[in-house]
Amino acid sequence: xxxxxxxxxxxxxxxxxxxxxxxxxxxxRAGLVDVLGKAGAVNVQGEEQQKLDVxxxxxxxxxxxxxxxxCVCASEEDEHPVPVPLENRPGKYVLTYDPLDxxxxxxxxxxxxxxxxxxxxxxxxxxxxxLEDCLQPGRSQVAAGYVMxxxxxxxxxxxxxxxxxxxxEPTIGEFLLSHPNITTPPLGTYYSINESYYDRWSExxxxxxxxxxxxxGAGHGRNARYIGSLVADFHRNLMKGGVFMxxxxxxxxxxxxxxxxxxxxxxxxxxxxxxxxSDGERPILDIxxxxxxxxxxxxxxxxxxxxxxxxxxxxxKAGVS
Length: 321
Ligand code: P6P
Description:
The protein is α+β, with helices and mostly antiparallel strands. Helices cover 28% and strands 24% of the residues.
């Protein structure tokens, strides 16, 4: 379908899959090998780095950095982008990623995940990439995906034409197509939000959650499911239908989740699956990034549920009950 294609994007996706196999191998043995617990360092987010965070970041950089397919990588774990030096032949793609999201759950064997986003470079070819190459809106992503390390290891990606899921067959070490053409139901079964923050929320989010608890008498009742691991919560809602919300609140005025390597790649996937992703007012994919680790409020999942949340927030903001 694309006679001009060089196969580099395909190869880059295979590189990410190779890194994922490696990360799966050591997350599966986390309880057995001394990789549990803190790495003794703090990352740019000010969060305790788990040893597996550090390992996963090193694996991603070692697999991706020398392939000649990317010109710059940016990771949640590194304060600055990592340009690919000339000797490694900087390529035409840009990779931003969260190497192991949900890492605070690692020691209790809750599913964790890798999230990745791929753009084309916008600076001239033939030289290392720059921060400018990383700060592109989600709408211009070439591809995006995540790997969930759970009861099985699943890689879900989209290159804009449908969403496809692959399950790792450990006996042959290969990802096999297990979920072709994933679409997400327009109305969800679940709502996912950390309700312990209720007192920090705006009146709009309090009204949304009252409705999802079935307290508005308008039939918006849903089941509550919140794992506290973004990839696990997102994947369940993608497959079954649901809406995940991480609002801005009085403690986190921009929310907690990061735009470039969490909200934007998952937003790209959910839109390709027929869903929606918003910051509560506008599509995540339309946000122009201004800094590498900027945070954003996130409402993501079933299309009609996201629209309901946006309508409710807007009406409360306008003072309409
Ligand atoms: P809270 C995990 O630390 C994470 O970054 C996401 O995976 C998850 O969705 C969120 O934070 C959970 O945050 O404040 O509910 O513990």
